[in-house]
From TrEMBL:
PANTHER family: ACYL-COA DESATURASE, DELTA-9 FATTY ACID DESATURASE, DESA
Pfam family, one: FA_desaturase
Protein name, per record: Acyl-CoA desaturase
The family this protein is said to belong to: Belongs to the fatty acid desaturase type 2 family.
GO cellular component, one term: membrane
Topological category with respect to the lipid bilayer: Multi-pass membrane protein
Keywords (A to Z) from UniProt: Fatty acid metabolism, Iron, Lipid metabolism, Membrane, Oxidoreductase, Transmembrane, Transmembrane helix
Keyword Iron: yes
InterPro entries recorded: Acyl-CoA_DS, FA_desaturase_dom, Transposase_DDE
Length: 399
């Protein structure tokens, strides 16, 4: 075989379709290594893989991304802990969307220089011999080895595949998930951050598209939470579980409404606190939105238009508005007393459910008082919401 022959076809001389299939297989495997092993298992401890499977993921992540488990886990946990603040390693709200989409890797490289932070946020991780001596000590050897494997298999085209492989995680995870996943898409949960679900069918980035679901329940191994959603990562976990190669440790709780509960009890409180992002979303949809709709129509008839930003701001109680915009929202609300009452009730409910210094008993008392006031408020939607809320409880988790 001449050198030119080798460069053109590699050792295998594979047909084009096989080269394309190889490309999709290796990039998907990298995505799975990241979402299943680094993210769901190592960072959030929601699933445990058989040591052999875990090692395949680890090896593959080393071979194709040069990412070190400890660095990735720490940076990611810090993202959850400090989300959308200056300290969030990759928040488009704090750093700007373009920076996160196009310079996500730079932000990651910057973050990992802070070794004290890495140690603080990666507690509980154990480095074994091969991690210390090879994967963490020589992260760049993996991609270098991958380069020669691709070259040997397919010749020059293998090098092109390698280049795309190296771009895959920076573009898909650092750019798309960290950037767009906090910027664009739909929200099932009114979380304290700007996270979004990019698509309901999440199969291209291993299920990470369902990023708002993930922020609502970070320790859930399953990202699909609505009937019409599909998380391919969860499908893989389910398959491995059936083969006895994975153990699911935690999934998101589901809400159950008990009939005929007159007074909120400890179970109600626990459920409301656990699913409080879902509660916020429901409150907006069932209680605030119908009135907001009417008020906007009335305002329009009177020649007053509320900007889209302020309208959306009401959904998150002005959390992402500037001070000036928030003031404008409050001023507008002040002229709409029935809407203002609903917003005020939401604030009080959120205060009760937030993990503040109040003890459980005081919190339950406050929730009971909130429910009776809501039912006497004169708003049918609010009264209905409070009546349902009394019966809330968590359905047993089918892990
Ligand atoms: Zn996020
Ligand atoms: Zn996470």
């Amino acid at each position: 075989m001449s050198i030119l022959d080798f460069l053109a076809h590699g050792l295998t001389g594979s047909p084009t379709w096989l080269v394309i299939a190889y490309f999709f297989a290796v990039t998907q495997l990298t995505i799975f290594g990241t979402t299943l092993f680094l993210h769901r298992s190592a960072a959030h401890r929601s699933v445990e893989f058989h040591p052999l499977i875990a090692h395949v993921f680890r090896f593959w992540t080393w071979l194709t991304t040069a990412m070190v488990t400890r660095d990735w886990v720490a940076i990611h946990r810090k993202h959850h802990a400090r989300v959308e603040t200056e300290e969030d390693p990759h928040s488009p709200v704090a750093h700007g969307i373009w920076k996160v989409v196009f310079h996500g890797v730079t932000l990651y490289q910057e973050a990992k220089k802070d070794r004290e932070m890495i140690m603080q946020f990666s507690q509980g991780l154990e480095d074994d011999f091969i991690e210390r001596k090879l994967y963490a000590a020589h992260p760049n050897w993996g991609p270098s080895l991958m380069f020669f494997i691709n070259l040997a298999l397919f010749g020059f085209i293998g090098v092109a595949i390698w280049a795309f492989q190296m771009l895959w995680i920076p573009v898909m995870a650092a750019g798309v998930v960290n950037g767009l996943g906090h910027w664009w898409g739909y929200r099932n949960f009114e979380t304290d951050d700007r996270s979004t679900n990019l698509t309901p069918w999440a199969f291209f980035i291993g299920g990470e598209e369902l990023h708002n679901n993930h922020h609502a329940y970070p320790s859930s191994a399953k990202f699909q939470l609505r009937r019409y959603e599909w998380d391919i990562g969860w499908s893989v976990i389910s398959l491995l579980r059936r083969l006895g190669l994975a153990k699911v440790l935690r999934i998101a709780p589901t809400l159950h409404v008990r009939p005929n509960i007159q007074l909120p009890d400890a179970e109600t409180l626990k459920a409301a606190m656990t699913v409080r992002f879902e509660l916020s979303k429901r409150y907006f949809r069932e209680v605030i939105r119908p009135t907001l709709h009417d008020e906007l129509a009335a305002a329009k008839r009177a020649g007053i238009r509320l900007s889209g930003r302020l309208r959306r701001g009401i959904a998150s109680d002005g959390r992402w508005l500037s001070n000036e915009q928030r003031e404008a929202m409050e001023t507008w609300l002040a002229t709409r007393p029935s809407l203002a009452t609903l917003v005020e009730h939401r604030r009080r409910l959120n205060e009760i459910l937030a993990r503040t210094s109040k003890n459980a008993e005081e919190r339950l008392e406050a929730l009971r008082a909130w429910c009776s006031e809501a039912e006497a408020s004169g708003s049918r939607a609010l009264a209905q919401f409070a009546a349902d809320l009394r019966g809330w409880s968590l359905a047993p988790q089918a892990v």
